[in-house]
Amino acid sequence: MVGDAMKKASMNKPEAAELLGITTNHLHRIIGKSDKLSALYNPSQVGGPLPKPVELLTRSEPEPMKESEMVAAGARRYIHPGYSLPEFFKELNKRNIKYVVLRWFETLPEIEEDEDIDFLVADEDVEKFNELLVPPIYAGSQKIDLYSESGLKGTSYNALPYYQTNLAKEILENRTYHNEIYACPDPERHLLSLIYHIVYHKSEKSGIPVKPGGNYTRSEHDYAEVIKNICQEADLELPKINLKDLHVYLEKKNWAPSIDLIRKHSTYLSKDDCLATLYPKAQEKTSMTVYIIREWARDKNLIPATQKALEAEGLEILYTHVLSEDQIHKSKDILRGGNWGAGPWPVSGGTPYAIIVVLDQNPIENKSSTSHPFLFNEKFHRIKENLRRAINNKLPSDQRLNYLHCCDDTTECLEYLNVLLPDKKAEILKKKSHLENQLKCPFPIIENYSRFQRRSHVKLVNYKGRKAVCKIFKKNREVFMEREIKAYGKLSKSIKYIPKLLETGPNWILIEYIDHDPDKQQDLLKNHLREAVDVTKKLWESNHAHLDLHPNNTLISKSGELYLIDFEFLYEYPVRPPFSESYDLTTVPENIDVGRIDEHENIYHSHCKIWKSQTGFTLPELVEKFS
């Protein structure tokens, strides 16, 4: 091609452009963006010799695409216009680049007009491959889509690996050559990778029916016929050709991607596409997830700190494990589709390093259908984001990263366990069942009052034919239960603002129910501000501080009395300070640890904001007002 172009350098410009594989319109666009080419060709001229554009376009060492150009272009690339297709493939082979053409390679070097070529390339060869490509200003050359085996930045499919990484590696390791030039999948991987493309990339857009007996619809290719031809020519088993059976076929061949990757692919299809219903969002009374800590955190010894933070948020640890080399490879290649890049962060967190399996017995359902549509428990995501933020706030902006991941629901969690800890799965589930039994309520439940339940579950129950409040405490949270018993059982006898204790059990307490209207509490409190000051002083007089005294821990009964609740942080002074220095009116000294997860100063300012927003005064201001 290049030689013929050199011989015909005197032909008119449109003819030379077409010989180089560039349409006239594309040439005009290229020239508009390149001063170098503008100097070679003035589009206002018609006819006359072409001043050797071939020398520019066929230089022996083409300039590779810049990383910014690659990322901006996505997977789309253009073959350097100086190469014919056979020359391009010979150069790939000469450079020992590990690649395959995924589909429609049977007709190479012939390509239908305006068709692209889909390439899969080994991660380590992406840079060498890019040296033979040009940016989009050469849009007249042969277009290709370049996908790396792990979905590296700029070579991914919707920011995901095109194939799950272990499967991409399998395709590349078993490649063969068409006409001894064009690397392509071997027949079996050709069939499997095509079915994968149909089921998880195209789904209903493939035109193949969802179920047996369904109707075919119009598509760009007759995929059913292609599958039949591959099977016939390679003497392979012909699967049932509908989307559900093709998925089952891939599962039997260990070629179905992970559940989380299937779900991610489905979010780029129609919301009604059948792929979204393959693994629907779980509906759970309790919820499990696996938090994955990445390699960056190893030298920082972040496992204990992360585990402590998860427990402080009310999550129960089922299992903590540092991954073996084999488990690291499995998680890197299979979980999250093998996508462990830097993502939107400047620095990569590295490969998976350790896992923490957790249980949440009071999940908060994620109601969003657009953001994380398969996430069941909103708390898991919130905790993960908070921990990431806590780490990155301590790092320079150019060193920030993602050190922590978690799966979306119990369905994904169980798959993670199957991949990483199959021999420990039964033990983990047994512990989960044991913890759930520990928190069973001993009374008939009327309503669940729990929200974040870091230390206990709160239920409105039926107690001897009347309403009562039952708090069931988690394992290792006995100190919080003891404080509540002290407040409701002892202090309530001298402080009228504290509800009475009815009964206690091995890990639960039962408190009298204060009949109240939840929707009117904020307005009612404004009429009981003097009582709020009084209960604060009564606690101080009893030698105690509440340490969580804010409007949301007060109740105004339907009969018009104020009550104070939630005494898990009740503190007894060894030496009582002046009332003006009560720990409910000032910042608590940092050396006092009552099991809070936030710094005392932050808690104090948070309480002041709540009082101010709901009453117009901070609590210290109310004390001054009514003193």
Distance between the termini: 96 Å
Mean pLDDT: 87
Number of strands: 20
* Largest sheet features: 5 strands, mixed
Poorly predicted runs are 1-62
Tell me what the CATH architecture of the domain at 287-422 is. Answer: 2-Layer Sandwich
Sheet-strand content, in percent, reads 5-15%
Quick synopsis:
The protein has 627 residues and is of the alpha+beta class.
Can you describe this structure?
- The structure is a single chain.
- Among the domains are: 1-56, no CATH class; 287-422, Alpha-Beta Plaits; 445-512, Phosphorylase Kinase, domain 1, CATH 3.30.200; 518-626, Transferase(Phosphotransferase), domain 1, CATH 1.10.510.
- It is an alpha+beta fold and 627 residues long.
- The chain is built from 23 helices and 20 strands.
Descriptors for this entry?
disordered N terminus; Alpha-Beta Plaits; elongated; 5-stranded mixed sheet; 627 residues; Phosphorylase Kinase, domain 1; alpha+beta
Give the topology, please.
Elements: H1 2-7, H2 13-19, H3 24-33, H4 35-40, H5 53-57, H6 67-73, E1 76-79, H7 85-94, E2 99-101, E3 117-121, H8 126-130, E4 133-134, E5 143-148, H9 165-173, E6 176-178, E7 182-184, H10 187-202, H11 223-234, H12 243-252, H13 259-266, E8 287-294, H14 302-312, E9 316-322, H15 325-334, E10 352-360, H16 378-392, E11 404-406, H17 410-420, H18 425-438, E12 445-448, E13 456-463, E14 466-473, H19 478-489, E15 501-504, E16 508-512, H20 521-525, H21 529-541, E17 544-545, E18 554-556, E19 562-564, E20 571-572, H22 600-615, H23 619-626
Parallel strand pairs: 3-5
Antiparallel strand pairs: 1-4, 1-5, 2-3, 6-7, 8-10, 8-11, 9-10, 12-13, 13-14, 14-16, 15-16, 17-20, 18-19
